Known about the structure:
- This protein has helices at about 1-10, 20-30, 50-85, 90-144.
- By secondary structure, it is mainly alpha-helical.
Amino acid sequence: MDELNLKTLEQIPIPEGLEERLSAKIDEWGAKPTTPSIPPRGEASNTPPRGRWRGVAVAASFALVLGVGLHLMRQDEETNLAEQDTYQDPVLAQQEAERALNMLAYNLNKGMGHLEKAKALSDKTEQSFNEKLKVLKRYETDNH
Length: 144
């Protein structure tokens, strides 16, 4: 198979001047480096040293962690203050508890109503399915 491809390739005529043009192009590529070269030690470059970027990355990470920590501490303090205000007065605490329980009961009853509707629909669908299945079984037994 490789010999067949090689023979076919040898039969293709090579355009005149192709070799010279390829050589010129290769020489042109060699004259202009397409990839940035790494300067030897001691020579100046346009890129900042890597150590500086590492320092910036460490400082940014530290600032981020510090900011998140301070935010969470402040949020915990605000939550504790709100809870202390509610539970210092027993009457207010009882009212809040009753309100929360009433809301829970309302939402629970509402959810149970939806559940009952879904169960009724499910029962109706199951009944219809069973009726269709009985008809199908009856049809099979009659035809066999």
